[in-house]
Amino acid sequence: MATKDEYESLVNHVFLLPKLPQSSDEVPIKAFVGLLSSALTAFKGLRTDPTQQAPIDQVIRMTQNVLRTHTTGSVNAETFEEQLSALPRTGGTVILHIGAQNAGVLVSRQSDASELAIRFEVFELSPTNAAVFQGQGRLVRSFPGYAIDVDLKTFAKPGLVESMAQAMAKMSLQQAPGMQPQVKKAVEYVDEDRDTTHPGMVSEFLTGYLSVVGHPVAANTISKNTREEVLWQDARSPWRRSPVWLLFRVTLQFCLPPKLYKEFMIFMMASMVKDSRFIALSADLRYAMTAKVARRLYKVSGLPDAALLVHVQQTLGEATTVLEKQWQKLQRYYEKPLDLSSLAALNFEDDSFVAIPSLDARIESIAAREKLQYATDFRPVSSLKTFLPGMLPELSGIDDDTDFTIVNLHAFETWVEANVSNWSLAHRHETNASKQLSDLIKSYHGLA
């Protein structure tokens, strides 16, 4: 059984709880293998249909082989070479975590193609920091990124399997120059090791080599709405969701039917909720875990398997009961005893009545106040001038209020533009019409 800290780290990566660590917290591949192996074995016991047990058996073998392939965290060349050599006979899938290149590789025998072939499927694991920060909500990602088939005749050529095993083992351990994002510090650019590595050595170099001995194929892809986080505070390296966990989830989704995959994920997470009682996780973490399982169960399309439904409901019911008892215990612990004996002799009717004569007099005086109302005749005068179309404007006094002089002059100019011709035509026989226009022009000139 894992320690509390180890199990809590595993829970953080699987459940992605609301409150996550703020520094790097890598979970070894052995922990994920142990979790999946035990959950798959127990899940198989719930299935009575042989057609469902067969893919589960295959996934169990495939998961357990991961430990043989990754003895020290990186790929073991000798073990991987043995598994590659056995693929044409035994079939199945080999899972590789090329950690130093931030890539995952699935190697499997394809018997549904036009010819028997070994298929290499590669994809990026952890997205870049920028993709996580700039994305709104979940990241929509497709897997695999590339797929290449090598026919069995070519695959059996001497030295091919050995060279591929050696190359992948080396790539899983050693970082390649030029694949790490860079930042400028002082006057030079340096590798930013807090960001993820570009998987070019696998997605470009390895696939380029495999394309020479094989050929690219349009493999079946799956689309996942992945939830990613990059968090760090007062730490050297950030916390990010485990790339190993993503590798296993993608592999399970490839190898299991869609509904069986979803039901297994619910079963595994419910089993972790059950095990959390023995790890002494905090109540808030266990509550968040039960909420996540309930949400997954709600999202399953169609009616889930009856045995699975009973198992999950029983597990969640037990967890809820434990949480309720713990809450009641906390309430009793922090409950303060109240001594109410002094209230026994109280007469609430008499003791709640308080005579305040001054307040009564004040309230009565309010109603007796004389109401005084003063009416004022306020008729404001606008400083804005209005010029009628048929009357010659009067400009005297428009500069009394300097704030409106420009506006009034503009109104006069508008009147001239629209009405001066009509006014002149209507008053052409009047002897003083010209003088009136002359005086108006002089007044305007003086004001402008």
What features would you describe in this structure?
The chain is an alpha+beta fold. Among the domains are: 182 residues, no CATH class; 46 residues, no CATH class. Helices cover 52% and strands 12% of the residues. The strands form four sheets. A five-stranded antiparallel sheet has the order 1-2-3-5-8, with helices on both faces. The chain has a two-stranded antiparallel sheet with strand order 4-9. Strands 6-7 form a two-stranded antiparallel sheet. Strand 2 and strand 3 form a beta hairpin. The longest helix has 29 residues. It is flat, with a radius of gyration of 42 Å. It starts with a helix and ends with a helix. The model has no long low-confidence stretch (mean pLDDT 89).
Question: What's a quick, concise take on this entry?
Answer:
By secondary structure, the protein is α+β, with helices and mostly antiparallel strands. 52% of the residues lie in helices and 12% in strands. Among the domains are: 75-256, no CATH class; 402-447, no CATH class.
SSE topology:
Blueprint: H1 4-15, H2 29-46, H3 50-69, H4 77-90, E1 93-98, E2 103-110, E3 117-124, H5 129-134, E4 139-143, E5 146-151, H6 152-155, H7 160-173, E6 182-185, E7 188-191, H8 200-213, E8 215-216, E9 222-226, E10 230-231, E11 239-240, H9 243-255, H10 258-279, H11 283-299, H12 306-334, H13 348-351, H14 357-367, H15 405-426, H16 433-447
Helix pairs in contact: 1-10, 2-3, 2-10, 4-7, 10-11, 10-12, 11-12
InterPro entries: DUF6606 (IPR046541)
Pfam families: DUF6606
Domain DUF6606: 10-273
- Helix tally? 16
Work out the oligomeric state of the chains in this entry.
Answer: single chain
Order of helices and strands: HHHHEEEHEEHHEEHEEEEHHHHHHHH
Task: Calculate the terminal CA-CA distance, rounded to whole Å.
Answer: 95 Å
With strands numbered from the N-terminus, the spatial order across the biggest sheet is 1-2-3-5-8
Number of strands: 11
Shape designation = flat
Strand proportion, as a percent range, falls in 5-15%
Unreliable residue runs: none
